[in-house]
Amino acid sequence: MKTLFVLFSVLFFAEVSLAQMDENWIKQAAVDRLLRYVKIDTQSKEEVDRVPSTEKQFDLARILLKELQDIGLKDARLDEEYCYVYATLPSNLSEEEAAKVPVIGFIAHVDASPSVSDANVNPIIHKNYQGGDIVLPNDTTQVITVKNNPNLLNNIGSDIITTDGTTLLAADDKAGIAEIMTAVEYLLKHPQIKHGTIKIAFTPDEEVGHGPKYFDVKGWGAKYAYTIDGGQRGELSDETFNANTAIVTFNGKNTHPGYAKGIMVNSLYAASYFISLFPENMKPETTSGREGYLHPYDLTGNEEQTRLKILIRDFEMSGMEAKAKILENMKEKTLGEFPKVKIDLNITESYRNMNSILSKYSEVTKFAEEAMKQADVRPVNLPIRGGTDGSKLTFMGLPTPNIFAGEENPHGKQEWVSDKSMVKAVETIVNLSNIWAEKDAGK
Ligand SMILES: [Zn+2]
């Protein structure tokens, strides 16, 4: 009996996941949402010791709360203090089956980048794009060129959504919110697509690095999650840099320059010599892909003492150690040239590659790839040359890779997104919800 039931389940689920989704409905629903959300200014602010960094993020959070309640997610709630929106889409499996399926979650952020204003966004839809550069109407010096955006050519026949050239679009990450919301609505309208318990969260302050700070990981209750906040169609990231910060302090000896002969030891010369030793092929401006870097980014000082801050980045821990060794050698060489200067090198940990944890739960990434393939999207695993909210959440006990939302040229006036990418992101979320159920319910 049990075997028969399992067999039936597998056949049933497989058939559903192969079914064609209603792309027109998805497109309309997702794009309409994006156009509504981008009208709301949600810019976050750097160096504010509070979450959310700006009160206006609540404006969108309240709309999202109401919308979640309106589409039927009864437990939707807003954290009135820290501006997180949480909700649950209950499983449509039998109780016995649902208990076997891990609770998964989808996350997007409400804030927009502090880099360019997102007030009074005037979204422009370039219908049925046929190739060529896109000139933005209210500032014609802003041109989205095919040369800098070769991915435009993968969107021939799609509608391309841009700004009028004077603001951000903030498709980063309002496209992600629109896609999650639309996927939830789609799942509610199509109960034949089976899924376990699905959790939804919209977070503040991602752009200023504080998104996970007050995230209620435990209360939310997902076992695995996905941020929907990546670029091109197919993008999937389960890897970030390892990151350390080094501080090098050069201690000299100051005295009145008029009477300094034989006494003064000027730390500035030692610091400047040290900086000249950074290897050329290991700088942010000379590396890409999986290469790490050493990056001096802040220098303050005088004759008595100079302090240099350095970023150390690498995907591998062995690369981190090698880079620390290089700094150590640079220190020794500088001491050789400036024997009277005292040099301290101090390295502290910033964050770690989330892959060190995610690799233990390989199905989290594998199922996302499968969900994309079912939506006719070729997955491209792209290591992130930085940290993400997902990497912090992963280390807070919630393994969270990142999936494309379709946002391109984020943080600038030439931001754009295609309706095709949005549809494919929605389909990926729907498929992924189903795949977790399909793989685990029958076990
Ligand atoms: Zn983002």
Descriptive notes:
Helices cover 34% and strands 19% of the residues. By secondary structure, the chain is α+β, with helices and mostly antiparallel strands. The protein folds into 2 domains: 2-239 and 354-440, Aminopeptidase (3-Layer(aba) Sandwich); 242-351, Alpha-Beta Plaits. Helix 2 crosses helix 5 (171-189), helix 5 (171-189) crosses helix 12 (419-440) and helix 7 (267-276) crosses helix 8 (317-337). It is globular, with a radius of gyration of 25 Å. The structure holds zinc ion. Zinc ion is lined by residues 109, 172-173, 206, 229.
Q: Provide the CATH top-level class of the largest domain.
A: Alpha Beta
Structural class: alpha+beta
Distance between the termini: 14 Å
Question: How would a textbook summarize the main sheet?
Answer: 8 strands, mixed
Strand order of the largest sheet: 1-2-8-3-9-16-10-15
| Order of SSEs | HHHEEHEEEEEHEHEEEHEEHEHHEHEEH
- Determine Rg (CA atoms, Å): 25 Å
Number of domains: 2
Helix content: 25-40%
- Into which percentage range does the β-strand content fall? 15-25%
Ligands, deduplicated: zinc ion
Short summary:
This protein is an alpha+beta fold.
Short key terms for the protein model shown above:
single chain, about 450 residues, alpha+beta, Aminopeptidase, Alpha-Beta Plaits, 2 domains, 8-stranded mixed sheet, 12 helices, 17 strands, globular, disordered N terminus, binds zinc ion
Topology:
Blueprint: H1 2-18, H2 23-37, H3 57-70, E1 77-78, E2 85-89, H4 95-98, E3 104-109, E4 124-126, E5 134-135, E6 143-144, E7 160-162, H5 171-189, E8 198-203, H6 217-220, E9 224-230, E10 235-237, E11 242-251, H7 267-276, E12 293-301, E13 305-314, H8 317-337, E14 342-351, H9 355-358, H10 362-374, E15 380-381, H11 389-395, E16 402-404, E17 417-418, H12 419-440
Parallel strand pairs: 3-8, 3-9, 9-16, 10-15
Antiparallel strand pairs: 1-2, 2-8, 4-7, 5-6, 7-17, 10-16, 11-13, 11-14, 12-13
Bound molecules: zinc ion.
